[in-house]
Structures are given as structure tokens and as C-alpha cells.
Write a structure and sequence with these properties.
Length: about 270
């Protein structure tokens, strides 16, 4: 037997906070982490019933759940929800920044408040929640995981989504800086970058992605929220202890298609959101 690796000394995570866990990808992440024996702190913005439903599913898996409202347009105050959830759960070993919002307005038509609102939720809010969670992790001295849900638009642009793309690319860069700065505390920081996933955000709540043909995607369909959650759940395990500063694209191959697909477009409809 050799000397144990650092990640072996660190046990499996016990407590996670998942922002935006009242629906979609965040809900699937909360349930996937609960399935691994993790107590979960759930935040919601407007859908209290959705958050309660997630909590019921989490508790149904035999672990604890706590719920708080979080409005990331109300900063820096709102980030205190992370402290409250950590207090109720007895700490936080994993933070998943999943809350997010976007626009469908061209940059030239966008007012400053709309721009700032998206940046607040997707970037400022994620920064403040990461800062709060990391302070708890550092104090506890047992390492930790921060996982930021970005988007394929961390890596590639989209018409009508200037603040979304800027915030997700910024969150990808923040992920890398935090990975550098928090490594000495055995806290890893990674991003997960989904493509089109069947959730309320894409107008596909409760839709089976296998019934939605997408001939332009190499895998031919949107993704399921569970397919994003599975990657997040892996990153939360001790087995992922040497992975930090990375961006995991979960997009059915969409990002690979840029040059090939753009050459096949025959009109200019792509210029409009
Ligand atoms: P969703 O609409 O189900 O979830 C969005 C979540 O963000 C909700 O839980 C909501 O409570 C939270 N939220 C919205 N505004 C907020 C605010 N002001 N303060 C705090 N929380 C707020 O959509 P989803 O698809 O599950 O999105 C989850 C994350 O995944 C987002 O960050 C989104 O950008 C990202 N994403 C989604 C897709 C997709 O195709 N669905 C693709 C790439 C990235």
C-alpha cells in the first residue's frame, strides 16, 4: 500500500448548497447529490412550491434538505442565504452555482439595467456565493468543491445574449482564478457548460429530450437535466479530487459544429435573436 493520496483523506461530501434548485438543472443536481448521501441546501427565486418539491425528493432519498429564498439581483445582501443554509446544514462541502438568467435582445437595443441584471445574477451573485461558501470550507479545513454552471456560451457567442455570454465567460474565468487561489485549501473549482437542456429555460419543462430532434447536434437531441447533474455529482466526489480549473462541456457535441454548421446556413435569420 502506498501513501494515501490527499483526496483519499478527505471523505465524501456531506453537505451541499445548490442555488436555483427549484427547477430544471439545479433540481436535478440537488437530487443527484442527495442520491450520493449528501444533505442539500436549496435556493429558489420565485418558485417556493418548486423548492419544496425538490426538498421532498431530497428527503425521500434519506438525507436532509433546507430551503431559502435567494434573489441575486439584491446584492451583496442576498448571498447571506449561503451562510444561513450552511448554518442549518452544519457546514458546506459543495457549492453549486446554478441560478441563472438571460435575455433575447440585441446589444444595440439593450438598456443598461437589463445588462446589469443578468451580470448580477450570473456573475456577481455566483462570485459572492462562492466567497461565502469558500470561507466556511476554509474554516472547516476539510477541503471542498465549487462547481459553476456556465453554458456553451462560456465558450461561444450567441445573437441576443450579450450579457448572458459575457457573464458565463466571466464565470468561466472566475472559475480558473478561484481554482488557483483555493487549491492550497484543497478546494477544487470547476465549471460545467451545458448545451441545450430540456428545462423551463428552454421552454421544455417535463419534455423528454429524446422526442425533440435536433439534426444539427451530433447526438441529435437536447440533453436531459440529469445528464448535466451526473457530471456535477461526479465532480463532487473524492474521485474527482485532482480536477480543478476545468470546464466540462455537456452539449451533445454542439460546440464542435461551428465551422461545419455555419457553412450550411442558407439565409440570414441567425442575425436576429
Ligand atoms: P430554470 O429556469 O429551470 O432555472 C433557473 C434557476 O435560476 C431557477 O431555479 C431560479 O430560481 C434561478 N434564478 C433565476 N433568477 C434568479 C435570481 N434573480 N436570483 C436567484 N436565483 C434566480 O433553467 P435551467 O435551464 O435549469 O438553468 C439553470 C442554469 O443552467 C442557469 O445558470 C442557466 O444559465 C444554465 N444553462 C441552462 C441551459 C439550458 O439549455 N437549459 C444551457 C446552458 C446553461
Amino acid at each position: 500500500m502506498g501513501t494515501p493520496l490527499p483526496q483519499d483523506r478527505r471523505g465524501a461530501p456531506q453537505r451541499a448548497v445548490v442555488t436555483g434548485a427549484d427547477s430544471g438543472i439545479g433540481k436535478a443536481i440537488a437530487v443527484a447529490l442527495a442520491g450520493g448521501g449528501v444533505d442539500v441546501g436549496i435556493t429558489y427565486h420565485e418558485d417556493f412550491d418548486g423548492a419544496q418539491h425538490t426538498a421532498e425528493q431530497v428527503r425521500g432519498l434519506g438525507v436532509g434538505a433546507a430551503v431559502r429564498r435567494l434573489d441575486l439581483t439584491d446584492l451583496p445582501t442576498a448571498a447571506a442565504a449561503v451562510d444561513e443554509l450552511a448554518g442549518e446544514l452544519g457546514g458546506v462541502d459543495v457549492l453549486v452555482n446554478c441560478a441563472g438568467t438571460g435575455t433575447a435582445t440585441k446589444a444595440m437595443d439593450m438598456d443598461f439595467d437589463t445588462w446589469r441584471g443578468v451580470l448580477a445574477v450570473n456573475l456577481d451573485g455566483a462570485f459572492l456565493c462562492a466567497q461565502r461558501a469558500a470561507r466556511h470550507m476554509i474554516e472547516a479545513g476539510k477541503g471542498g468543491r465549487i462547481i459553476n454552471i456556465t453554458s456553451v456560451h462560456e465558450h461561444a457567442p450567441r445573437v441576443g445574449a450579450a450579457p448572458y455570454c459575457a457573464s458565463k465567460a466571466g464565470l468561466g474565468a472566475l472559475t480558473k482564478v478561484l481554482a488557483l487561489e483555493l487549491a492550497e485549501h484543497d478546494i477544487t473549482v470547476n465549471s460545467v457548460a451545458p448545451g441545450e437542456i430540456s428545462t423551463p429555460m428552454t421552454g421544455q419543462e417535463d419534455v423528454d429530450p429524446r422526442t425533440q430532434p435536433r439534426p444539427g447536434y451530433p447526438l441529435g437531441r437536447p440533453g436531459h437535466a440529469k445528464e448535466v447533474a451526473a457530471v456535477v455529482a461526479f465532480l463532487a466526489t473524492p474521485a474527482a479530487g485532482y480536477v480543478t480549473g476545468a470546464s466540462f462541456v455537456v452539449d451533445g457535441g454542439m460546440l464542435l459544429m461551428g465551422p461545419q454548421a455555419s457553412g450550411l446556413l442558407t439565409d440570414s435569420t441567425w442575425r436576429e435573436p
